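Exercise 7b. C-alpha cells:
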C-alpha cells in the first residue's frame, strides 16, 4: 500500500529520479507543488517541457545552446578559437564561464572514461576532439576534467591521443580539491587552477 494518495505518490517518484533527491526531499517537493497556484503549476510544468523542447546540442563543442546550430560561444567572433578547454559535462562550461579571464572555446566530452561502468572513448566525443585539433587552428588544449580517478584517466588518455598533433596540452592545476567536481569550485579557485595548469609533454 502506498504511503500517499496516487497523484502525490506519482510526483514523488518522478522527483526521486533526480540525482541526489531522496524520498524525504522528493516528498517535500511534491507537497510544495500542492501550494502552487494553477498559473504557477503551469509555468513550472512548461519550464520542464521547455528544457527538452528548446535546448539544443552544439554540433561543434557539444555544449548546450538555446538555438539550433553553433552555440553562442562557438559562433562568437570575440572568442579565441585557438584555445580549447575540455570538460566532462555541459554544465561545466557554465562553471568555467565564471572565470572571466578565459576567452577561448570549449569541448564537452559527455562524461569520463570508466571501464567498470562500460564507458569507453566511443561513448564520449573524444574522436570529435581529435578531429577539431587535426583540422588546425588550435594552439592549446586545456583538459579540465574533474580531479577524480575517472577524470585523471580521461585526461591522460586524451593527452596521449594528442601527442604529435602540434598543440600544447595542459591540465588544470590542483587548485580544485581532489575528488571534487569543478561545478562546485569558486571563481578564485578556478582562476588559480587555470593559471597553474601543467603541460603534458608532446
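Sequence design result:
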Amino acid at each position: 500500500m502506498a504511503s500517499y494518495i496516487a497523484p502525490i505518490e506519482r510526483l514523488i517518484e518522478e522527483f526521486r529520479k533526480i540525482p541526489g533527491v531522496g524520498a524525504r526531499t522528493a516528498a517535500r517537493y511534491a507537497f510544495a507543488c500542492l501550494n502552487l497556484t494553477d498559473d504557477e503549476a503551469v509555468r513550472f510544468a512548461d519550464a520542464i517541457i521547455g528544457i527538452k523542447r528548446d535546448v539544443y546540442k552544439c554540433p561543434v563543442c557539444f555544449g548546450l545552446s538555446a538555438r539550433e546550430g553553433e552555440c553562442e560561444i562557438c559562433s562568437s567572433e570575440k572568442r579565441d578559437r585557438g584555445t580549447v578547454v575540455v570538460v566532462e559535462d555541459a554544465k561545466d562550461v557554465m562553471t568555467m564561464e565564471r572565470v572571466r579571464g578565459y576567452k577561448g572555446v570549449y569541448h564537452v566530452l559527455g562524461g569520463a572514461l570508466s571501464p567498470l561502468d562500460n564507458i569507453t572513448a566511443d561513448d564520449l566525443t573524444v574522436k570529435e576532439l581529435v578531429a577539431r585539433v587535426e583540422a588546425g587552428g588550435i594552439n592549446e588544449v586545456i583538459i579540465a576534467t574533474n580531479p577524480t580517478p575517472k577524470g585523471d584517466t580521461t585526461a591522460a588518455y586524451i593527452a596521449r591521443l594528442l601527442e604529435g598533433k602540434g598543440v600544447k596540452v595542459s591540465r588544470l592545476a590542483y587548485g580544485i580539491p581532489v575528488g571534487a567536481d569543478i561545478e562546485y569550485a569558486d571563481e578564485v579557485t578556478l582562476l588559480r587552477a587555470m593559471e597553474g595548469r601543467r603541460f603534458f609533454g608532446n
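Instructor comment: The domain at 6-53 is CATH 1.10.8.420 (Helicase, Ruva Protein; domain 3). The mean pLDDT is 89.
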